[in-house]
Amino acid sequence: MYRHSFRSSLSLLAIVAGTLGAQTQSPALTYPAATRGTQLDIYHGVTIADPYRWLEDTDSPETKAWVESENKLTDSFLATIPERGAIKNRLTQLWNYARYTAPFKEGGRYFYFQNSGLQNQSVLYVQDGRNAQPRVLLDPNLLSPDGTVALSGQEASDDGHYLAYSLSTSGSDWRELHVRDVNNARDLADTVKWVKFSGISWTHDNKGFFYSRYDEPTSGNKMTNVNRNHKVYYHRVGQAQSRDELVYDRPDQPDWLFFTNVTDDGQYLIITVAQGTDVRTRLYFIDLDNPGKPEIENPVVRLIDKLDAEYKFVGNRGTMFYVRTDRNAARGRIVAISIDNPREERWNTIVAETKDALVSATTAGEDIVGNYLQDAHSSIRFFSGSRDEQRDVRPRGQPQPQQRNPGSIYDDTSTAPIVTRDRGQLTGGGFTLRGELPLPGIGTVNELHGKQGDDELFYSFTSFLYPTTIYRYDLKARRNEVFKAPKVAFDASQYETRQVFYTSKDGTRVPMFITAKKGIQLDGTNPTLLYAYGGFNSAQTPAFSSASAAWLEMGGIYALANIRGGGEYGKDWHEAGMLAKKQNVFDDFTAAAEYLIREKYTSTPKLAIRGGSNGGLLVGAVMTQRPELFGATLPEVGVMDMLRFQKFTIGWAWTSDYGSSDDQEQFKYLRAYSPLHNIKPGTCYPPTLAFTADHDDRVVPGHTFKFVATLQAAQGCANPILVRIETKAGHGAGKPTTKQIDEAADRFAFLVRELHMRPTLQ
Q1: Sign of dihedral through CA atoms 339, 340, 345, 347?
Q2: Is 265 an active-site residue?
Q3: Which alpha helices (DSSP H) does 338-461 contain, by range?
Q4: How far is it, in rounded angstroms, from Cα 567 to Cα 537?
Q5: Torsion of CA 617, 531, 27, 31, to 10 degrees
Q6: Fewer CB within 10 Å: N-end or C-end of the chain?
Q7: Percentage of the chain with pLDDT > 90?
């Protein structure tokens, strides 16, 4: 495998700097004082020092003083970069275009988001018909002067009369629910608090909705406390939260999470049971009896009660449920399960596994619509059943009388006799591939909004050089049309994206997208930003961003590596980068960097790496394993302390991917790559600008605080180690446009300085 020594990096830096004119070396910085404590922890007989434990307490005066000093140092450093103002101006221009989301439809009304360009938060619009004039339904920009209150979730009632929506303040994962009358765009008195990791699911009588929440914290720090004992509630419109009905909880399983949705026919409440971030799930449901008069107190039926695979509800026709699963199909298939005969040997595969990863599926019209990844880009395929199956569809909203059965008869583990119900049943049968959605090119479909029995489907398409465009697809005529298209002040025709495949350390073939100016010279002098994620089955696919467009205009190359740990190739690709195999993720990323250097796209002094959250862990791990390989590093909101992450907020949920230091064997490999615990004093680490936020209650800021303090103390050369700590912000979701632009401007200004760039700014 190609290796690039630190000495050769220094030599090449001198050569590159010489070709670009005189460069000034950043002087050594004086970092804020950070007291080294005496905290020692013992893990399975091994003593581990944690001298900056005090930085975990984000509310202490000492931590606040440290944060203030670090921000002052970073601000003063960035203020000396002359290109910073021009970069921000160009970013502002590129951000200033109208953006839209794909509409969702309820009661004949169309709901979608629009941002005119520089609005801090996108505005929710409604159209009372497809050709009606849109009107503002909810403008989050009016909820706070600085745009830090974000609309984080919404769901309209089946008749389109009400909108239940959730608000997040300063980027927190905590949500507060409200209800708005769509007719007059006014809120009702309803308020529901302490909601987290929840959807909103209306019953089809339009009188209330299901949601999930935790109990109100009674002590400790509400931002960092561990979250356990998720519960499903039902809220009736017009009633106080204190009267909400508890639908389901499992005090015997405090780590379970519950996600609900009501089926398109209104007949069932689907409860997807997750165990942390484990992709494997259980599938429960409640038969609501009559969609017009739902019986929410009916028993919860454990349809699939084994944690052996992923099970995601796709849709139903009568008592036949369609479920996407990786059970005996690593890249995904769809099975038909009769809830009257649910045992696994009676499941029928209706959409078989293919060589491409089936990442999601929905029903639209009479079809099942599968969203596949084909070498990390989208392919949308339509599958149709037989006419006999379509004849069995019960019209939406029309109840059928039935004999109620005990919940246990549906239980996959039950020995009770099978009871056949009167409602129309399907025998399953294979669905045939009807066709594929014509897409504008290689890219990503991020939204697919359609319903069973409807005649239209809305979706969004994007790619690195293709701003997100909203399309309407006529399911009967099989015709595409543009619903909303953006106009961006960016000439994409000057650039191109190519997909390459490189070989990782163990011989695995890994894809990578590289976007650059057409005709760029491969001479090793191009500033390059390499990004990846590599975890939790999350696929990284082509997408347009104004920030990336600015980077390209500045002469940069943007590379996205589809490393293991993600979901680009299904279950096996994910599992090859989790638990004891996590090092594969870091090896894949390192191999991507080495490929870019070997093929002369760039060189070490010109190569920056970036990643956020789990990707921040990725950057932290590779920069401590291979500090000589990179010209700059940007670890953002990263999980840096792999021995204590499970002790804060939802961190325990990540043990499915990471493992836990509480386990002796898992402790060994976690310690081996934990960024915080692999910083070696006297080592020359690359120039680093870390990012975190004071309200990040997912990856608490203590991770980055301790990492940066340790890195600053250990740094063996003049390369700067800085941290940018955003205030009134969280893990990233709902971040105001102004903060996004400021953050991107600081990121690129830092790279201009440290990669010795001379960008041409428009």
Answers
A1: negative
A2: no
A3: 387-391
A4: 4
A5: -30
A6: N
A7: 82
pLDDT at 220: 63
Amino acid at 594: E
Determine contact, residues 620/708, Cβ cutoff 8 Å: no
- What Å distances lie between residue 386 and 265, 348, 429, 450, CA to CA? 20, 14, 8, 20
Helix, strand or coil for residue 350? strand
Name residue 143's amino acid. Answer: L
* In the predicted structure, residue 487 carries a pLDDT above the cut 60: yes
> CA–CA distance from 573 to each of 325, 506, 615 (Å)?
16, 14, 16
* Rounded Cα gap, residues 280 and 306, in angstroms: 9
Check if the beta carbon of residue 363 is closer than 8 Å to that of residue 322: yes
- If you write DSSP's letter for every residue of 669-693 in order, what string do you get? HHHHH-GGGG--TT--PPPEEEEEE
Considering the candidates 696, 697, 703, 756, report the single residue annotated as catalytic: 696
pLDDT at 649: 82
Q: Identify whether the C-beta of residue 446 lies closer than 8 Å to the C-beta of residue 462.
A: yes
527-568, pLDDT tens digit by residue? 999 999 999 999 999 999 999 999 999 999 999 999 999 999
* Kind of pairing between the strands at 231-236 and 245-249: antiparallel
606: phi > 0 → left, psi -120 to 50 → alpha, else beta; which?
alpha
For the segment 160-196, what is each residue's pLDDT rounded down to a tens digit? Answer: 999 999 998 877 888 999 999 999 999 999 999 999 9
Q: 166 CB contacts (<8 Å, ≥6 apart)?
A: 151, 152, 153, 154, 175, 176, 177, 178, 195, 198, 200
Q: Is the pLDDT of residue 83 over 80?
A: yes
Residue 521 corresponds to which tokens in the numbers above? 């010279």
d(CA 370, CA 178): 33
List C-alpha distances in Å: 452 to 483, 706, 735, 741: 21, 51, 34, 40
pLDDT exceeds cutoff 50 at 415: no
pLDDT band at 27; cut points 50, 70, 90 = low
Sign of CA dihedral 212, 218, 222, 227: negative
User: What DSSP assignment string belongs to 259-311?
Assistant: EEEE-TTSSEEEEEEEETT-S-EEEEEEE-S-TTS--TTSPEEEEE---SS-E
Per annotation, catalytic residue among 170, 731, 746, 756: 731
DSSP-assigned letter for residue 32 = P
d(CA 628, CA 620) in angstroms, rounded, equals 13
Rg over alpha carbons for the chain, rounded to the nearest Å, is 26
Return the SS3 of 354.
Answer: coil
Q: Residue 589 gets which letter from DSSP?
A: H
CA–CA gap between residue 370 and residue 432 (Å, rounded):
12
Query: 613 catalytic, yes or no?
Result: yes
For residue 155, give the H/E element and its range.
strand 149-156
HEC string of 469-531 equals EEEEEECCCCEEEEEECCCCCCCHHHEEEEEEEEECCCCCEEEEEEEEECCCCCCCCCCEEEE
| CA angle at 79 for the pair 75 and 81, rounded to the nearest 5° | 130
pLDDT at 16: 30
CB-CB contact of 176 with 167 (8 Å): yes
**pLDDT confidence band for 264 (50 / 70 / 90):** very high
391 Cβ contact list (under 8 Å, min separation 6): none
Q: Rounded to whole angstroms, how far apart are CA atoms 591 and 60?
A: 41
Of 613, 660, 661, 674, which residue is the catalytic one?
A: 613
Q: Biggest alpha carbon distance in the chain? A: 84
Q: Which residue has the tokens 């070997």?
A: 598
Please, are residues 349 and 337 in contact by the beta-carbon 8 Å criterion? Answer: no
How many Å apart are CA 113 and CA 518, to the nearest integer? Answer: 34
